[in-house]
Amino acid sequence: MLHALYRWIDRNLLELGREMRLSYLPPLMVYCAAGVSGLTGIVGTFFVKDYLGLSAAFLAALGFWAGIPWALKMPIGHLVDLMWRHKAGLVYLGASLIAASLLIMIGLIGSPDAMRAVMPIEAWFVLSVLLSPVGYVMQDAVADAMTVEAVPRVDARGEPIPADTVRLMHTTMQMLGRVAIIGGTVMVSLANVAMFQGSESLPEADKVAIYLRIYELALIIPLLSVSGVLLGGFLKRREARRLAALGRNRAEIDRLLHDPEEKTAPNWWILGGSAVFVALTITVGLSGIEYGQEIIFATSFAIIGFMISRLLRELSPEAARTLLGTVVIIFAFRALPGPGAGASWWMIDELGFDQSFLSRLDLITSALTLAGLFLFRRFMAEKSIAQIVIFLTVATTALSLPIIGMFHGLHEWTAAHTGGVVDARFIAIANTALESPLGQVSMVPMLAWIANSAPPHLKATFFAVMASFTNLALSASQLGTKYLNQLHTIAREVRDAATGAITTPADYGALGELLVTVTVIALVVPLAAILLTRLAGLRSA
């Protein structure tokens, strides 16, 4: 028994540590910055709920627009391939936009009157929400390219590394990338637990002071990503000195360290299509036209789908069928709508989940998601995307049932029969503990397949186009969430900031129907997508 346990630990934990290389650290730092971005999540939820009179449907619509920059990862990724030597500049630009977004929120919380004198608080908040993803998508596109660059092509003697070893290193690199992102969320969860400790008994002014400190602490995010790029430059210079000592000439060193195996020519289909997409998005977004979001989504889908069709020509027929089947399944799985902000408001108002408890819940989520990457490491490596999605679909459907039950009083019944032990918080913690390890399982196999199978001169482009398509699924999810919230209207209590009078009464009556609808869709859509790919003769990675 002990021997079997040791073998499992060795294969899933210690082996990953043995495969770690110093060259992997720069992109991992940029990925970790993305994970740390969740530091302000709880603060943002309470700030919107308590100080902004925005509806759940509006927030879902805002989430749609915030997701659009991720569709722009396609031209940004191709730009990274074209300006391979100077891609670090995009990280600096992205870090500046993230810092600007955080500084706006610091101003809104710390000096709201001064900010209101310039333009409405709601307008500032929308600007902050939209700036942030633009910065993160720039950094993420570069980090994807850095993961390819981090895997060495020659060994310590300057000899080419065998293809099987390179494939293993790519898988390890992508696994570590997920670990870095989730590790960042664990760190911020710990910070939130510490910051919100005992906050439930504090007066509102002291809570606002905590909100402000958390946003100030979040300024470490752009510093972390910039530090990763600086470390990457240092390691390149060190590797250049090592290769020079082995007798390589300057041209050869330059080729190995700074150039992909093949030169990248501008793909005008990608650049031109992206220019059309940007122009249309800005025009429709500013025009206020009815069904503007739907127009943007349909156009985005058509453009990105066309780009994928062009990129599939770079692959063998078998690899093209595999990639196409994979993205269809992943898109369906990630496009599932959620209940929206109303479910969080209900938990805060009706179940009494305060900042302190939600921070502890986030810590459990992050820690167990990280554990899940190790727990399911072999499962992800040995099973196809279709098999993984079937497992995740059934599991997440089952795990959504306790929340539905709590809306109908499950926690009251269990508390009455267990002496108050199994109450709403107990059920939330248990449910989170079971669900969290599943969080990142679907993405690692696809990322590893792209890293290993995409043409060497188009790695960043393939990463970006596939990411654009799967991130577009999140925009579809936000649209679905908006529609469901329009169909099942939910409102939390809103009070006038000056008089304290209730301007909008709380109404969570439709939440039960909303939760059931979301659960049924989450079960049916992924399984239908898998069936359709099978009928079409497609495979999955």
TrEMBL record:
InterPro entries: BT1 (IPR039309). It is a multi-pass membrane protein. One of its GO terms (cellular component) is membrane. Pfam families: BT1. It comes from the Bacteria. Keywords: Membrane, Transmembrane, Transmembrane helix, Transport. It is found in: Membrane. The chain crosses the membrane at residues 28-48, 54-72, 92-111, 117-137, 175-194, 214-235, 268-289, 295-312, 319-337, 357-376, 388-410, 514-536. PANTHER family: FOLATE-BIOPTERIN TRANSPORTER 1, CHLOROPLASTIC, RNA-BINDING S4 DOMAIN-CONTAINING PROTEIN. This is Major facilitator superfamily permease. It comes from Thauera phenylacetica B4P.
